[in-house]
Amino acid sequence: MSSEEFEKLHEIYKSLFEELKLMPDRALKIHGEERKRLVRSFDERQGEAEEVLQGMEEELRAAPPSYRNAMSTKLRLYRRDLGKLQRDMKSSAPGSGFSSQPGQGSHHGIYSSQNQQSTHLQSQRALLLQGTDSLNNASQSIERSQRIAAESEQIGTDIIEELGEQREQLDRTRNRLENTGENLSRSRKILRAMSRRLMTNKLLLAVIIIMELAILGAVVYLRFFQHKH
């Protein structure tokens, strides 16, 4: 609901009502063509007032319930007062061709032109608001997309850095393994050399023992068996 539009219509209605309520008394004081012109003027103004009240009711449909209920009661009182003025005018100017049907006055009066302009402005405002909402939604979508892209780029950067660190760790591990393999090869060579020396030493020790046993046997033989002869 546009409170500004409703207040504008309310002011128009009050102006029309102030003009209408003076006409029954004037009709009692005039006669002939002047009375007929007054009756036609009343008919036109009364039709315009009905259109203004209809416009106020349309504005109230979008209003909050508490405000709408209070103003609906006031609008009913306005219609009642307008009907009373119509009856007073009929009794003040009998036989003057006064129309009993509301809204038969000029349909191009004050409210009609303003209502058309207001409807056009409201349509343009609704289209503008719709376009603004669409732009806002598009901007929010773009911002979300940019934020997601930035987050994805940061995640990708972090992953690349982590993969680079893991590659360095793998390279260092591979180098250590290669060094370990070389050390193991050197160790195996050293162990084989030590094994060969050990076997050689064992053989030499065995030969020495055999030689010592032979010498010992020869000494024993010479000492005991030579003395007997």
From TrEMBL:
Residues 132-194 form the T-SNARE coiled-coil homology domain. GO terms for cellular component: cytosol; endoplasmic reticulum membrane; ER to Golgi transport vesicle membrane; Golgi apparatus; late endosome membrane; SNARE complex. The chain crosses the membrane at residues 203-224. InterPro entries: SNARE, T_SNARE_dom, v-SNARE_N_sf, Vesicle_trsprt_v-SNARE_N. Belongs to the VTI1 family. Residues 91-109 have a biased composition (Low complexity). Residues 87-125 are annotated as: Disordered. Gene3D superfamilies: 1.20.5.110, t-snare proteins. This is Vesicle transport through interaction with t-SNAREs 1B. One of its GO terms (biological process) is vesicle fusion with Golgi apparatus. Keywords: Coiled coil, Membrane, Protein transport, Transmembrane, Transmembrane helix, Transport. It is a single-pass type IV membrane protein.
